[in-house]
Amino acid sequence: MGERKGVNKYYPPDFNPEKHGSLNRYHNSHPLRERARKLSQGILIIRFEMPYNIWCDGCKNHIGMGVRYNAEKKKVGNYYTTPIYRFRMKCHLCVNYIEMQTDPANCDYVIVSGAQRKEERWDMADNEQVLTTEHEKKQKLETDAMYRLEHGEADRSTLKKALPTLSHIQEAQNAWKDDFALNSMLRKRFREKKKAMLEEEERDQALQAKASLAIPLVPETEDDRKLAALLKFHTLDSYEDKQKLKRTEIISRSWFPSTSTSTSSTSKASSVLKKLAQNRRSVPAASSPITVGHLGIVRRRSREVPESPQHMAETLKSGEPRVPAGMAQDRPTSPQDCSQETTELPKNSGPPGQEGSCGDRPQTPPGTSQEAANPQDKAQPCGLSSSLVADYSGSESE
């Protein structure tokens, strides 16, 4: 600022350095220009900064610490050899004037008029600040040697107590001296931290994709690591161990089904039978007896070798037919069974003596030559010449 003003100074042609000395004397003006307009009254206009928070008495508004004003500075007295200055300024919110002056005894500012101080003060001794020495103590230090010695010992003990704090503050200030090294260290630390964050984010995304999770994962702590270290998950080591475990389960299992199992199987069988009964065709009424035709059994004539006429005559005389060994199982057990079987066969219109014969072969009129020529073709009992053959062609396949 001074160099610019010095370069731009204009010296008129009638300027004489020996006569005028300087441009200010040549122009008959003060170097501070308008700021020194009341200098004849001992008032100099300066830029004053509010030392603490106050309340204006005119507008009752708050004025914060650090607000600057154009104040009139004037000397009003001395504290010993230290001058006491008073500052008068106008509030920027109203027409009220505020006056403050210095207090060298307490190293503070005092409000004379126009405002009130916001009480935010504290004890300097409690705050470990440097206290000002009073006038009586100064005189005693100058005149009394023993008091000066005791005061010096107290100061040295205070210094020993404050030395660690002072050294720590000095180290912190030295660390901030080299701006380039400090900036490099901070950038390096930031790069390392960012790289670690990216790696952790990749691991979290892989775990979320593997476990199909959609919730954010919380970073693990030392307590989580300790708890995970205490947990142990035991698994079967080999295939042989699994086989041994399965064999022991099979051996310890009961051979017979339990009551609950049998009950469940019975209920399943009953349900299946009910379904089958619903799907089958309607059965005949319970009053009519079940015959061979209802069961779908058709009687067919057996193709065996006919017996001799002598054997037939013996059979007729005895009244009991002889059944071959192979056909014993096909004979009806009772006459009722035979009668039931004969009722299902188509009846012929032959003589009464042939009613008990099987009717599944063609009949010839009596007295014919064929009957005489083939006496072995006479009627035979049902159990000797016929067998029961099951025919399931008409039944439904369930």
From TrEMBL:
Residue ranges with Polar residues bias: 331-346, 383-398
A single BP term in Gene Ontology: mRNA splicing, via spliceosome
Region (Disordered): 1-26, 297-398
InterPro entries, A to Z: Saf4/Yju2 (IPR007590)
Stretches of the chain forming a coiled coil according to its record: none
Domain of life the protein comes from: Eukaryota
Pfam families named in the record: Saf4_Yju2
Role of this protein: May be involved in mRNA splicing.
Family membership: Belongs to the CWC16 family.
Name of the protein: Probable splicing factor YJU2B
Organism: Sus scrofa
Source organism phylogeny: Eukaryota, Metazoa, Chordata, Craniata, Vertebrata
Gene of this entry: YJU2B
